[in-house]
């Protein structure tokens, strides 16, 4: 009796197949998959080792790859000729004007993909779809919006010459932060407010695939002074550089950071910050970031230590920490959110741990949080752990004024790759 249902299901499947074959308007059959040696090597993203080897391919490798492409095309052509594959009539996707008629929200790739890394200029999103971060049906562009990030009425600046200033990837942030470093003289930490802007755009044109970013941060801390000084602490950070984002493969960039720190002293310092990572097709990303500088700043000021009646001279030479860290960055289930964990060291033999997080909370707002801790080594004098301890914790509210949602801002190829420098990514260390 248990066999009867199986026989009945088998007969039903056979009859269904016969009826489908006799139907006058049968659906085109799916193209047959090619053998492993022909298909999988084309569809599978290259590993980092394969990507590096492809940069130094020999003539024999290129000839073999060309033969594979010819064999694949010949195989498909033979299947079509034999009737095993039915050609698809793409004219049904066109209007009378001959233009493609994509579905709402569909992303169209118009150009070639190189080594699995899609050129950002080859993508556009239909206006009105969720993927269009700046246009969204022209609501921000006077109704003239052809492609995502290309608006007919983008802001124009005419001093001294006229040029368009795309603001699609502009973000404005404000929040609080607490931090401490050798400049705190081993005593009070600093707490205050941080605010700033960060902006990204294509470098020259989208055909380059490169982006440029520019951002500034301001910080006001120690609003009621400290135990050894009554001065407020005011800081200014500037970050500018270039980067390249990809769907998968090698991704990275380099920026210049500048800091002005005014407290019981005045310091101006600068550093170079960069990162290089491999972005996996499954969206995870593993890489390495660094900061480097040999600029030295000197201070020679008077401070009054707690319990003392006579001022003490605080003097010394300081330079930015040279930091080196590996990181893993992953997108979150919340659309547009991402999180990164870092671990590494400094050239002064301190350990480094850190993390940063960005989570959209509304259509145009996101919460951004970060921390970094430099683990001091044991010692005396300038190597006293209490003096050298360096940490930063911050939380900010980020506003995307030109993006219809913070989630869509998190998908644009030309959004800034680097956060603007702060007291975590830019910290000083005594050199004597």
Write a structural description.
The chain is α+β, with helices and mostly antiparallel strands. It has two domains: 68-166, no CATH class; 168-430, monomeric porin ompg (Porin, Beta Barrel). It contains six helices and 23 strands. Strands 9-10-11-12-13-14-15-18-19-20-21-22 form a twelve-stranded antiparallel barrel. Strands 16-17-23 form a three-stranded antiparallel sheet, with no helix packed on it. The chain is elongated, with a radius of gyration of 29 Å. The chain starts with a helix and ends with a strand. The model is unreliable at 17-42 and 100-153 (pLDDT under 50).
The CATH top-level class label of the largest domain: Mainly Beta
Largest sheet: 12 strands, antiparallel, barrel
CATH superfamily of the largest domain: monomeric porin ompg
* Count of spatially separate domains: 2
Helix-strand pattern: HHHHEEEEEEEEEEEEEEEEEEEEEHEHE
How far apart are the first and last residues' alpha carbons, in Å?
Answer: 91 Å
Strand order of the largest sheet: 9-10-11-12-13-14-15-18-19-20-21-22
